């Protein structure tokens, strides 16, 4: 195997808009994987983005028609992490499909294997390294197979991945996704290993580092989205908050906003393909700010412009930062009927001392004031949160304050994580990870049980009521079997992102429907469809704000 070339590929900073380090590039056609959280999801600590707890392999059924292309063999891709990772995987798959790759759900059948990785939790990294270890023997049987590691762990560990797994061919960071097709081709042709990563945060000026994190939002065919009616749209990436426990500012780079014209063009393109719901993505999505053609755009301005898109029924966004929850954004949500009233805005802890050690940038008083404003503008809104248990120095008294916060705010759901010390973070160098794992597990379970209890109580208030549901399609985890050949269990979400399951015709997917709620769980409303009112491609019904 040849000497390893180290590739760091900065791009020219944008000159077409006034956003420092703004990403520019080709039109993106993005994808939504439904945010199917539990009422209280559990795991190890991470960034503010809700995490997907299990890795997923993209199904061959989601790959779209190959068209007239050269055949480059079979591709297997496995993804661990948040919605941003899921989107990145979809975009890489789209690019490789255009190069003639065929998807397979079996790694044993693959000519190319990619792992899109997460670094916010130690468990996620162990999972990837274990998977790489299992491939070592198989690689000997298939010497032409190409194995690649991409994403946050690739940006963080870089050449260490080659040290731990010498059979890996390419390592590609979050800002170099566009290089993957060429790197795979070179690896197969020349057996040349390659490392393509962006600059370290301290390796250059902000503009230089930002430019090295390339925007990757290419156009793709609608068949390559797993849902024809839902899509992710990235409006910004990177993070400048530097919480002491979090690696995301290092793995995703400086905070950057995409140009509004690009975003709006993408949304219009999606609407033309039949998409009904768009979820806007960003590490701190409500921090969005960009100047284009002399106008300063914020998230509220984007939502107002998107709201005019014909055919779109709903807009959501994740994840929000508490100190950037502005009145103009809440007013936009109140006044724009297509905007969801679901807001994911992590508190992380109920104790000010812990928040200070986390360097979250706000106090519990700040969060309380923000939450009060949300409820003043949006009385029926649903707010969700993240919590970290067992952070350095957490006492039983401070843990009780997190329990009190869940009781006070009655979150729709919470993502609850055990603290996981991450190399390179300030918390690792400043504090001792001094909470035993058994204590972390107990505290995690206590928050989990309380959140589930509150979620079920609040959901029970909807029994006997009608809710408006954007129908997503057949339920993958049916609670009961459909009772007619013309019906099967469908799933959808209310304007406040509550999951609703009910029996109905699969042709209702992509429509707004009225459902009467009969039963609930902590995570789900169970009901039956009201057949008198169904909306296709229009949001003229007055929304029920649940």
From TrEMBL:
Biased region (Low complexity) positions are: 39-49
Main location group: cytoplasm
Start and end residues of each TRAM domain: 460-531
Q: What is this protein called?
A: tRNA-2-methylthio-N(6)-dimethylallyladenosine synthase
Per the entry, what this protein does is:
Catalyzes the methylthiolation of N6-(dimethylallyl)adenosine (i(6)A), leading to the formation of 2-methylthio-N6-(dimethylallyl)adenosine (ms(2)i(6)A) at position 37 in tRNAs that read codons beginning with uridine.
Annotated [4Fe-4S] cluster 2 binding lies at: 239, 243, 246
Alphabetized SUPFAM superfamilies for the sequence: Radical SAM enzymes
**UniProt family annotation:** Belongs to the methylthiotransferase family. MiaB subfamily.
Tell me the keywords, alphabetical order.
4Fe-4S, Cytoplasm, Iron, Iron-sulfur, Metal-binding, S-adenosyl-L-methionine, Transferase, tRNA processing
What cofactor does this one take?
[4Fe-4S] cluster
Query: What are the binding positions for [4Fe-4S] cluster 1 in this chain?
Result: 82, 118, 152
Q: How does it assemble?
A: Monomer.
Name the EC number(s): 2.8.4.3
The cofactor binding remark recorded in the entry reads: Binds 2 [4Fe-4S] clusters. One cluster is coordinated with 3 cysteines and an exchangeable S-adenosyl-L-methionine.
Q: Which GO terms describe its cellular component?
A: cytosol
Q: Which InterPro entries match?
A: Elp3/MiaA/NifB-like_rSAM, Methylthiotransferase, Methylthiotransferase_CS, Methylthiotransferase_N, Methylthiotransferase_N_sf, MiaB_methiolase, rSAM, rSAM_horseshoe
Polar residues bias: start-end ranges: 1-13
* Reactions this protein catalyses: N(6)-dimethylallyladenosine(37) in tRNA + (sulfur carrier)-SH + AH2 + 2 S-adenosyl-L-methionine = 2-methylsulfanyl-N(6)-dimethylallyladenosine(37) in tRNA + (sulfur carrier)-H + 5'-deoxyadenosine + L-methionine + A + S-adenosyl-L-homocysteine + 2 H(+)
Q: Which PROSITE patterns match?
A: MTTASE_N, MTTASE_RADICAL, RADICAL_SAM, TRAM
Q: Please provide, alphabetically and separated by semicolons, the GO molecular function terms listed in this UniProt record.
A: 4 iron, 4 sulfur cluster binding; metal ion binding; tRNA-2-methylthio-N(6)-dimethylallyladenosine(37) synthase activity
Annotated spans, Disordered: 1-21, 39-72
| Pfam families (UniProt xref) | Radical_SAM (PF04055), TRAM (PF01938), UPF0004 (PF00919)
């Amino acid at each position: 195997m040849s000497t390893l070339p180290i590739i760091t590929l900065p791009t020219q900073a944008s000159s077409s808009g006034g956003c420092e380090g703004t990403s520019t590039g080709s039109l993106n056609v993005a994808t939504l994987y439904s945010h199917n959280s539990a009422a209280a999801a559990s795991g190890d600590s991470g960034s503010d983005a809700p995490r997907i707890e299990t890795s997923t392999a993209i199904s061959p059924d989601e790959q779209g028609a190959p068209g007239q292309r050269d055949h480059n063999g079979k591709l297997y891709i496995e993804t661990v992490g948040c919605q941003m990772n899921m989107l990145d995987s979809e975009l890489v798959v789209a690019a490789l499909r255009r190069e003639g790759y065929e998807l397979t759900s079996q790694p044993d059948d693959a000519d190319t294997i990619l792992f899109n990785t997460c670094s916010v939790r130690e468990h996620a990294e162990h999972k990837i390294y274990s998977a790489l270890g299992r491939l070592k023997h198989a690689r000997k049987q298939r010497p032409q197979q190409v194995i690649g590691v991409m994403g946050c762990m690739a940006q963080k560990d870089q050449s260490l991945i080659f040290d731990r797994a010498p059979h890996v061919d390419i390592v590609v960071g979050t800002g170099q996704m566009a290089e993957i097709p060429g790197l795979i081709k070179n690896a197969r042709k020349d057996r040349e290993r390659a490392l393509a990563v962006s600059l370290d945060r301290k390796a250059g000026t902000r503009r230089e580092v930002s430019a090295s994190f390339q925007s990757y939002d290419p156009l793709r065919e609608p068949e390559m989205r797993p849902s024809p009616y839902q899509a992710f749209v990235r409006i910004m990436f990177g993070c400048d908050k530097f919480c002491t426990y979090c690696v995301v500012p290092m793995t995703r780079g400086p905070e950057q906003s995409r140009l509004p014209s690009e975003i709006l063009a993408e949304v219009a393109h999606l609407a033309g393909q039949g998409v009904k719901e768009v979820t806007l993505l960003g590490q701190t999505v409500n921090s969005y700010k960009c100047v284009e053609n002399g106008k300063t755009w914020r998230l509220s301005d984007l939502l107002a412009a998107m709201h005019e898109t014909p055919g779109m029924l709903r807009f959501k966004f994740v994840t929000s930062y508490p100190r950037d929850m502005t009145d103009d954004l809440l007013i936009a949500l109140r006044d724009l009927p297509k905007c969801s009233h679901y807001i994911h805005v992590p508190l992380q802890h109920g104790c000010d001392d812990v928040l200070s050690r986390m360097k979250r940038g706000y106090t519990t008083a700040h969060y309380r004031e923000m939450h009060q404003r949300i409820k003043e503008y949006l009385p029926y809104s649903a707010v969700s949160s993240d919590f970290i248990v067992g952070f350095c120095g957490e006492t039983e008294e401070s843990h009780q304050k997190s329990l009190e916060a869940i009781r006070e705010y009655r979150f729709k759901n919470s993502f609850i994580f055990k603290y996981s010390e991450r190399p390179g973070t300030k918390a690792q160098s400043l504090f001792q990870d001094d909470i035993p794992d058994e204590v972390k597990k107990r505290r995690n379970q206590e928050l989990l049980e309380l959140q589930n209890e509150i979620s079920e109580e609040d959901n029970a208030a909807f029994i006997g009521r009608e809710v408006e549901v954007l129908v997503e399609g057949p339920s993958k985890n049916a609670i009961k079997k459909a009772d007619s050949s013309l019906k099967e269990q469908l799933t959808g979400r209310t304007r406040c992102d509550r999951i609703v399951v009910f029996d109905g015709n699969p042709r209702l997917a992509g429509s707004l429907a009225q459902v009467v709620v009969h039963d609930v769980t902590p995570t789900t409303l169970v009901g039956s469809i009201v057949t008198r009112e169904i909306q296709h491609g229009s949001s003229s019904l007055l929304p029920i704000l649940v």
